[in-house]
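It is time I had a proper look at our fold encoding. Can you supply me with one protein entry, sequence and fold together? It will help me judge whether the discrete encoding reads sensibly. Leave the record below and I will have a look:
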Amino acid sequence: MSDELISIQGQTEDSMHKAIQFLESELIKIRAGKANPQMLDGLSVDYYGSPMSISQVANVSVLDARTLSIQPWEKNMLQPIERAIIAANMGVTPQNDGVLIRIFLPPLTEERRKELVKKCQAEGEHSKVAVRNIRRDSIEQIKKLQKNGLSEDVAKGGETAIQELTDKHISLVEKHLAAKEKEIMSV
């Protein structure tokens, strides 16, 4: 097998792995009934004129299964953090006691659980599309190599290997979605 073909397969696997990692990070942000500090990862706070993530201006921790605690490193950051959480429209109301902010996560209703499952499935579909696009690009690269003198048998073997990588990563997406759906739907 040619070095170029091995390089294409390696790049393909890396790209597909990154797509799976992105899916994992997106699924963590979707609330499943349990408090998770990573739910706040996408939120930014105005810190003296520049946007910063909440984790850069405060300590975010889990007090119990349904409560998050946010303790800013500077007391004057309580109000901006509280405003950012309210503006994010997460379906929670922050409780500010002057020292730290607590977020109590209400139990999920059946309807809300179904909405969250749909959101997870949409994220999964985005990941599948990304994996398929990576496959398409890799197969195009292999076809270019074939035009430049790579034998047809080696090219077909490379395409088969790319397809196997694609199948493997699509099944990983399915596993992540199934696990997240089970987590969301369990009461």
Observations:
- Helices lie at 3-29, 54-57, 78-87, 110-147, 152-185.
